[in-house]
Design brief:
Elements lengths: L2 H12 L2 E4 L2 E4 L2 H13 L10 H9 L7 H12 L19 H7 L9 H24 L4 E3 L11 H14 L1 H6 L2 E3 L6 H8 L2
Parallel strand pairs: 3-4
Antiparallel strand pairs: 1-2
């Protein structure tokens, strides 16, 4: 084997390409990355525009708190509208609600990956938490910490929406016990900010 052939074979081995009588295929980290990328891009993503009527109806059931955009943005933030989402804690579905909460707010027997059920469930849960937080918020006992209103939120709606989102993620009692929630909380800040300004 000459020196040039040796260099070519060494280079092929370095990038993880194996050739046999049936052809060449890639292996190693690059192949693993490609396989993961193909798997990720094969996940079905729901188009929320296909469910505008459901979003409108869910928002109309809790108009003091919800808008279609807030509901849609909540689901986008929690699951990216991707089907078959499962957290490390085993929570699955578009709304990313624990089974008991999903069952409470979704139509009986619903699948967590059903977009209509997810819209109903997340809207119901947000409205429920909003009801729990209204009195302490109105009394000034809850606030969105580490945040300054831009002046556009004169009725404090955006601030309240952010606290409701924190309640969805950590539980309403957590929000009450801590006098609100912080926009710097690494676990919930992104969701709070995205939904409150939706």
């Amino acid at each position: 084997m000459d020196r040039m052939t040796t260099r070519i074979l060494t280079a092929i081995a370095a990038v993880g390409v194996a050739c046999t009588a049936t052809g060449c295929h890639q292996s190693g980290p690059a192949a693993d990355f490609e396989a993961a990328h193909q798997e990720a891009t094969s996940v079905e993503v729901v188009d929320p525009g296909d469910f505008q009527n459901e979003l409108d109806a869910a928002a109309a059931a809790c108009p003091h708190l919800l808008t279609p955009q807030r509901i849609s943005t909540s689901i986008e933030t929690f699951s990216g509208w991707r089907l078959d989402q499962v957290t490390s804690a085993g929570i699955r579905g578009l709304a990313q609600l624990p089974d008991d909460q999903f069952a409470t707010h979704a139509p009986p027997g619903s699948d967590p990956d059903d977009p209509r059920a997810a819209i109903t469930a997340i809207a119901g849960r947000m409205c429920e938490i909003g009801t729990e937080l209204t009195a302490p918020f109105d009394r000034g006992q809850l606030q969105l910490q580490d945040w300054a209103s831009t002046g556009k939120d004169l009725d404090r709606t955006a601030e309240f929406v952010a606290l409701v989102v924190a309640g969805v993620m950590a539980g309403p009692q957590y929000v009450i016990d801590h006098g609100g929630a912080s926009v710097r909380d690494p676990d919930s800040s992104d969701a709070m900010i995205r939904v409150m300004y939706a």
